[in-house]
Amino acid sequence: MPAAETTQIPLGFEAPDFTLPDVRSGQNVGLKELRGDKATVVMFICNHCPYVKHVLPALVEFGRDYLGKGVQCIAISSNDVVHYPEDAPDKMRGLAQSMDFPFPYLFDETQEVARAYQAVCTPDFSIFDHELRCVYRGRMDGSRPGNDVVSDAADLRHAVDCMLAGKPVSDAQVPSLGCSIKWKQVRV
């Protein structure tokens, strides 16, 4: 299966609002209540994607490292669970619990949130400032399955560190690369 890249869209767009179920708590939560005081990292991930599996330990570490610093990470899975049952909410909950996610893991059953964010692949990352304006839309780091680069979330860390230091985030951003989001088949 060919890899897909994050769609490059002009930075500065406002984060689309949403309310989705958190698979761990079972509660519906929204962007307005989850957002970070200084930065909000919205990431589209899933359970089955080898690209996500490859970076997941570093992603969890990234989330833990920025807890208490005004940064909130929000993970969303939007895949079609009929054709990809490993991405179903019960399996999402199991993964979040086994890896002790330090961020909510939300299920976008209608796929409307993925469309609103123009998410294309897993993983797909956007970082928003305190006004929920996008300042970063790119990769987590240069690591990919099989390329022998250690996954360390370097690109995400650099962008967030710039924000926390009051410095601008560079416009030179490399798109994320991963499996395509598994869109539901539309019946005609």
Secondary structure elements and their pairing?
Blueprint: E1 4-5, E2 19-21, E3 28-30, H1 31-34, E4 39-44, H2 50-65, E5 71-77, H3 89-98, E6 105-107, H4 112-116, E7 121-122, E8 124-128, E9 134-138, H5 154-164, E10 177-180
Parallel strand pairs: 4-5, 5-6
Antiparallel strand pairs: 1-10, 2-3, 4-8, 7-10, 8-9
What can you see in these coordinates?
With 188 residues, the protein is of the alpha+beta class. It is 24% helix and 21% strand. It has helices spanning 31-34, 50-65, 89-98, 112-116, 154-164, and strands at residues 4-5, 19-21, 28-30, 39-44, 71-77, 105-107, 121-122, 124-128, 134-138, 177-180. It has a 5-stranded mixed beta sheet. Strands 1-10-7 form a 3-stranded antiparallel beta sheet. Helix 3 (89-98) links the parallel strand 5 and strand 6 (105-107). It is globular and about 45 Å long. The mean pLDDT is 95.
Distance between the termini: 25 Å
Helix content: 10-25%
Runs in which pLDDT lies below 50 for 5 or more consecutive residues are none
Please give the largest β-sheet: 5 strands, mixed
Mean pLDDT comes to 95
Structural class: alpha+beta
- Radius of gyration (CA) equals 15 Å
* Molecular shape: globular
Tell me how many strands there are.
Answer: 10
Tell me the fraction of residues in β-strands, as a range: 15-25%
Instruction: Please write the string of helix (H) and strand (E) elements.
Output: EEEHEHEHEHEEEHE
User: Within the largest sheet, what's the order of strands?
Assistant: 6-5-4-8-9
Helix count, DSSP H or I runs of 4 or more residues:
5
